[in-house]
Amino acid sequence: MQSIVLAGGCFWGMEELFRSRPGVVSTEVGYCGGEMSNPTFYRHDGHAEAVLIEYDEHVTTLDDLLDYYFRIHDPTTLNRQGNDIGTSYRSTIFYQDEVQYEASRSAIHRNQSRWDDPIVTTLEQLERFWPAETEHQSYLQKHPGGYTCHYERS
After folding, report:
1. 8: exposed, middle or buried (Cβ count in 10 Å: 0-12, 13-18, 19+)
2. Comparing C-alpha atoms, which of 88, 127, 104 is closest to residue 8?
3. Which of 25, 26, 69, 82 is 20 to 30 A from 60 (CA-CA)?
4. What is the edge-to-edge ordering of all strands in the sheet holding 122-125?
5. Which residues of the chain have pLDDT under 50?
6. pLDDT for 73-114, tens place per residue?
7. Residue 88: count of CB within 10 angstroms of its CB
8. What DSSP state is assigned to residue 118?
């Protein structure tokens, strides 16, 4: 199994779309990229809402997952997705090693042609993933029709 941590707006919608992708074995929402210890949904200054995606590399590839990531959120809006505004909703790939870093750089370049404006997705080295509270895990499974600003773009 491999894993990647992605942020691109509210973690509920991203998790829901990734969970059904072929090869995705599990998803977990949480917080990344801030300096605060033990962040919570109501207090996670500096952290982005992120999704930890575990996948079977024999079924899907990192490139496939990154290309899908650029289809389900708007990577051209700085610190914003839909109605959600602030650094918590930034577009960031949290890479774990040089392979993920290079794959992420390539994915940004490869997907720029989908967008009229420049991609502002940042690359940050994963320091620590803090799992979100239980009530936020699989949120849209528990609350069908709940809030999301994520959708598949052609």
Report:
1. buried
2. 88
3. 82
4. 122-125, 91-95, 2-8, 48-55, 24-32, 130-131
5. none
6. 999 999 999 999 999 999 999 999 999 999 999 999 999 999
7. 24
8. P
How high is the pLDDT of residue 143? 96
Distance (Å) of CA 33 to CA 50, 57, 60, 116:
9, 25, 26, 28
Q: Which residue has the tokens 């960031």?
A: 92
pLDDT of residue 154: 82
- Using CA atoms, how far residue 118 sits from 34, 58, 115, in Å, is 25, 32, 7
Pairing of strands 48-55, 24-32: antiparallel
**Alpha carbon 14 to chain centroid, angstroms:** 6
Question: Where are any strands of DSSP class E within the chain?
Answer: 2-8, 24-32, 48-55, 80-81, 84-85, 91-95, 122-125, 130-131
Residue 66 phi/psi, 5° resolution? -65, -40
